[in-house]
Structures are given as C-alpha cells and as structure tokens.
C-alpha cells in the first residue's frame, strides 16, 4: 500500500492501519517495530579485510534508535544474531530521538556507544538476521540481509 504524504491521506492511512490491526492481531504481533525503539543502520561487514583486529571488530556495529518521545532504559534488552550470540544491555538510558551504537569488539562504554566485547565478528557478511528483544523476551524488531552488498543495511 502506498501512503501519500498529504495530511488527510496520512490520517486516512492511520485509520486504515488501525482497522487492519484490529482485524488481524496476528499481523500486529509480527510488525517489524512500532515506531519506538528500533534497529537503525547495521554495518555487518567491517570495511577492509576481516583481520579480527580490535579496530576491525569495532568497525562492525549495529545502531539502535529511539524514535519515541521518551527516554528508554535499556537494561536487560538483548541484541541477537541468527546463530544466537547475544549482547545484553546493562543499565543505559537512551534519550528520545537518540541512537546507541553497539560495536562488536572490546572498548570502554560511553555515551552513545556500547561494546559487545567479542574477539571475533558476530554479523555474517553474506547474510544474517539481527533481533532486538525486550527484557520480557518478546521481539521488538528484526532486520535481515541476504547478501554482502555494500556491507551495511539501513533497517528503516
Ligand atoms: Ca561481519
């Protein structure tokens, strides 16, 4: 369905999607995200050769964006690859409209960046799926790629 950008059309589309969601709760449960916290750009292929140096590992990363109007405490949120490797957030508050980058290698956590602390890559260059999971275990968002392409993907 194409959504036009004029305000009445947006309102009509919103009303339509609400009625669609109400009509089919199963599709609501599998929606990729609900406009709050979601996966942003993923640099799954670290630029240059995959030497496993820490700087190369850290050039592999996932952005998580908070497009809601409130800060969100990420403690207990999980980022998983398709194999099941899991990064679990410690206490970290992401502000409204802010992005946090999860880098694969080792480093000192700082504002806007978290380090997974791995000594090998996590995101497969030729295809993988990232999942963002709430502390309750329910999936908030996912993003997959099926080829190497440019080495990164903009999930939204
Ligand atoms: Ca990679």
TrEMBL record:
Spell out the Gene3D superfamilies in the cross-references. Answer: Lamin Tail domain (2.60.40.1260)
Which interval of the chain is the signal sequence?
1-28
> What InterPro entries is this protein classified in?
Lamin_tail_dom, Lamin_tail_dom_sf
The organism's superkingdom is given as Bacteria
LTD domain mapped to chain residues: 25-150
Q: Which residues are in coiled coils?
A: none
| Keywords for this protein | Signal
Question: Any idea what this protein is called?
Answer: LTD domain-containing protein
